[in-house]
Design a protein that fits this description.
alpha+beta; five-stranded antiparallel beta sheet; 11 helices; elongated
C-alpha cells in the first residue's frame, strides 16, 4: 500500500518520464566506445548540473590505483580518463546508498546491419532503439531522475546518497573500482543493468585472454614453403570448446548446479595476416571464459595456459609455442546476499507497485557489482529495465520498463530515507 507522499512521488516520476527519455537519448547520441566516452561524460555532467546535483570527476589514474590488487591490467594510457560522481550528504551519518551505472558501450560494427545508425536513438512500438539504450543508458537516466522525482515530491534526502556514472565496465571494471579506491563507497548499491524488474542473485567470474600464433611467411607461389598461422589458429578452436565443457563439467555448488551450461567460453575476435597473396605470418585470437563463484582468476588462467600448451604439443609441427596473455577482465564470481535489508526493501517496493513479489535472476555474465563485492564486501543487486539485443544489432529498451525502474528507485530512495531516520532514532 502506497502512502499519500508515495503516490505523490509516483506522480512526479510520471511527470519526469519525458526528461528520463531525453537524457537516455542524449547519452545514446554520445557513442561511448572505449576511448571515446567524452561526449557521454559531457552529457552526464551537464545533466547533473542542470538538476543541481554536485558533480565530481573521479580519475582512473589516481595515486596508488595502478597497484590495486583487483585492478585489471590495460594496454592504454589512463591519463585524463575519469568517471563522474554526484554525492549528496557525504559527511552525514547513516546508511549510505549508492546507485551505479556505466556509460561505456560495446562497438556496434558493422553499422550497415542496423536499421538506423546505432548512435541515432529512435522509438518504435514502445521501444527505444540505439547502442547503449538498454545497456545501460536508460538505467542511468532512471536512477538520476529518480532522485529528482523524490525532491520534487517534497521529500528531503538527508542521508548519504551517491550516483556513480562510470566507464570501462564493458572491458575491465576499473571505472567502478577507481571510485571505490578513492573512497566513493557505501552500504548498499543498486545497478540498473537491463535484466528486468527482478532481483539479481549472482554472477559468474570472467577472464579475458589473448593468444598469438606465429607462422612462417612465404609467397603463395609455393604455400608449402610457409606455415599458415591462420589455418593453425583454427585448429585450436575445438580445444577451447573442450575447455568450456571441462569447466562446466566440474562439480558445481548451488544455485549454478541447476543451470545446464552457465560458464560460457566465447572467441570474440580473430585477426591475422597482412596480404592476400602471402602465407600469413601471424594470427591473434581473443576470448572470454566464464567460471563459477569460488574459482579464482589465477586458476582459470592456468587452465587456459594448459589447454593451449597441450594442443601445441599434440601438433608437434616444430612451431614456436603460442604467446598467451591476459588483458581486461579477471574478475571473481559471487552470490548476492538475498537476506540483506536493502534486498528486502527493494522487494517490498516492487511488490507494492506491481502486486507480486519479484523473481530472482541468476546471471551467466558479470557486472560492476563485482567491484563492490571484492572491494569492501558491499552488498547490492541489479534491477533495471527490459532490453533486447544488448551487444547486438538494433539494441532496444522497453519504455514502460524504464518508467517502472524510475518509479521503483524513487520509492526505494524515500523508504531508504525513512529506514535511515528510524535507525538514527534507535541509536
Amino acid at each position: 500500500m502506497l502512502s499519500a507522499i508515495e503516490k505523490r512521488i509516483v506522480a512526479r516520476c510520471e511527470a519526469l518520464m519525458d526528461d528520463t527519455l531525453a537524457l537516455t537519448c542524449d547519452l545514446v547520441r554520445g557513442y561511448s566506445v572505449l576511448g571515446e566516452e567524452h561526449d557521454a561524460l559531457k552529457t552526464m555532467e551537464g545533466w547533473f548540473e542542470r538538476l543541481e546535483l554536485p558533480v565530481t570527476r573521479v580519475p582512473l589514474d589516481a595515486l596508488g590505483f595502478a597497484d590495486h590488487p583487483h585492478r585489471a591490467p590495460v594496454g592504454w594510457d589512463c591519463t585524463g580518463r575519469y568517471n563522474l560522481v554526484a554525492q549528496l550528504n557525504a559527511d552525514t551519518p547513516g546508511p549510505h546508498l549508492v546507485f551505479n551505472g556505466h556509460l561505456d558501450v560495446v562497438p556496434a560494427e558493422p553499422h550497415d546491419m542496423w536499421t538506423r545508425p546505432p548512435w541515432e536513438p529512435w522509438e518504435k512500438d514502445g521501444w527505444l532503439y540505439g547502442r547503449g539504450a538498454g545497456d545501460m543508458k536508460a538505467g542511468i537516466a532512471a536512477m538520476t531522475l529518480a532522485v529528482q522525482a523524490v525532491r520534487e515530491a517534497g521529500v528531503t534526502i538527508d542521508f548519504p546518497l551517491t550516483l556513480q556514472t562510470v566507464i570501462e565496465e564493458e572491458c575491465t571494471g576499473n571505472g567502478t573500482l577507481a571510485c571505490l579506491h578513492q573512497g566513493y563507497s557505501g552500504d548498499f548499491v543498486l545497478i540498473p543493468e537491463p535484466f528486468g524488474a527482478q532481483i539479481y542473485a549472482g554472477q559468474v567470474g570472467v577472464l579475458w585472454f589473448r593468444m598469438r600464433l606465429d607462422g612462417v611467411p612465404a609467397h603463395v607461389l609455393d604455400t608449402r614453403a610457409g606455415r599458415n598461422a591462420i589455418e593453425t589458429l583454427v585448429e585450436y578452436l575445438p580445444t577451447f570448446k573442450a575447455l568450456e565443457a571441462e569447466i562446466n563439467g566440474l562439480p558445481r555448488q548451488a544455485p549454478y548446479d541447476a543451470l545446464d551450461s552457465p560458464f560460457n567460453l566465447s572467441i570474440g575476435k580473430i585477426e591475422g595476416g597482412n596480404w592476400a597473396s602471402s602465407v600469413p605470418a601471424h594470427a591473434i585470437l581473443e576470448g572470454r571464459v566464464g567460471f563459477p563463484p569460488g574459482m579464482t582468476p589465477d586458476e582459470v588462467m592456468e587452465r587456459v595456459r594448459q589447454c593451449i600448451a597441450a594442443h601445441h604439443a599434440e601438433l608437434a609441427d616444430g612451431s614456436p609455442a603460442p604467446r598467451v596473455e591476459f588483458h581486461g577482465f579477471r574478475s571473481e564470481g559471487h552470490l548476492v546476499d538475498l537476506e540483506a535489508p536493502g534486498i528486502a526493501l527493494l522487494s517490498r517496493c516492487h511488490q507494492d507497485l506491481l502486486g507480486e513479489p519479484p523473481a530472482t535472476y541468476l546471471s551467466t555474465c558479470t557486472t560492476d557489482l563485482r567491484a563492490f563485492h571484492v572491494s569492501g564486501r558491499i552488498n547490492g543487486t541489479c534491477y533495471g529495465p527490459v532490453a533486447q539485443r544488448i551487444h547486438g544489432v538494433d539494441e532496444c529498451v522497453e519504455i514502460d520498463s524504464i518508467r517502472h525502474v524510475l518509479t521503483t528507485y524513487a520509492l526505494f530512495i524515500h523508504r531508504w530515507a525513512e529506514m535511515a531516520r528510524h535507525a538514527g532514532e534507535r541509536s
